[in-house]
From TrEMBL:
Participates actively in the response to hyperosmotic and heat shock by preventing the aggregation of stress-denatured proteins, in association with DnaK and GrpE. It is the nucleotide exchange factor for DnaK and may function as a thermosensor. Unfolded proteins bind initially to DnaJ; upon interaction with the DnaJ-bound protein, DnaK hydrolyzes its bound ATP, resulting in the formation of a stable complex. GrpE releases ADP from DnaK; ATP binding to DnaK triggers the release of the substrate protein, thus completing the reaction cycle. It comes from Solibacillus faecavium. This is Protein GrpE. Pfam families: GrpE. Homodimer. It is found in: Cytoplasm.
């Protein structure tokens, strides 16, 4: 009995130990595989997180660029509207300058008779009203005679010599110049001292 049973018990115990070792080995392999699988899953998750963070950073940068473009467009549109409002009368005033010049020339004529004096006063009133209306819109006469020549406001058409005045001083104004607010509509045509 002991032999048979003992042998059986021994072989069953031996099998059990071998099975246990195999099971332990299998379990260890499973643990290693599970750990490797978990590491692989973690690596994939980290890669996915890194990709998503990169996409987020790219979209954030894109948003900031679009916002800056929008702000620039807004500012440019506002400046264009302000400029259009500020200089809205420019074309009309430019067209009226020759008429203003002709009225100014008419006022340069000396009158002797009473009829001519009344006509002169009428032209003077029309000139004053027209000039006042244009000044309301921002028109201003560019000062010239006696001023230092400035190529931004004056156009020299001739040179003269006057020893009493410094060089570069405007001696005569041949045609009045005008500006609309801070923009020159027409420079003054002048004669400058050599």
């Amino acid at each position: 009995m002991v032999d048979i049973r003992g042998g059986r018990e021994l072989s069953e115990t031996t099998k059990t130990n071998e099975e246990l070792k195999q099971e332990e080995t299998a379990e260890q392999e499973e643990v290693v595989e599970t750990a490797e699988t978990e590491e692989t899953v973690l690596d994939e998750k980290e890669q996915k997180i890194a990709e998503l963070e990169a996409k987020l950073a790219e979209e954030d940068a894109r948003y900031l660029r679009l916002r800056a473009d929008y702000d620039n467009l807004s500012r440019r549109s506002r400046l264009d509207r302000e400029s259009a409002e500020k200089y809205r009368a420019q074309s009309l005033l430019t067209e009226l300058l020759p008429a203003l010049d002709n009225l100014d020339r008419a006022l340069q004529v000396e009158v002797t008779s009473e009829e001519a004096t009344s006509l002169y006063k009428g032209v003077e009133m029309v000139y004053g009203q027209l000039l006042a209306a244009m000044e309301k819109e921002g028109l201003a006469i560019i000062p010239a005679e006696g001023e230092t020549f400035d190529p931004n406001f004056h156009q020299a058409v001739m040179q003269e010599q006057d020893s009493e005045k410094e060089s570069g001083i405007v001696l005569r104004e041949l045609q009045k110049g005008y500006k609309l607010k801070d923009r020159v509509l027409r420079p003054s045509m002048v004669s400058v001292n050599e």
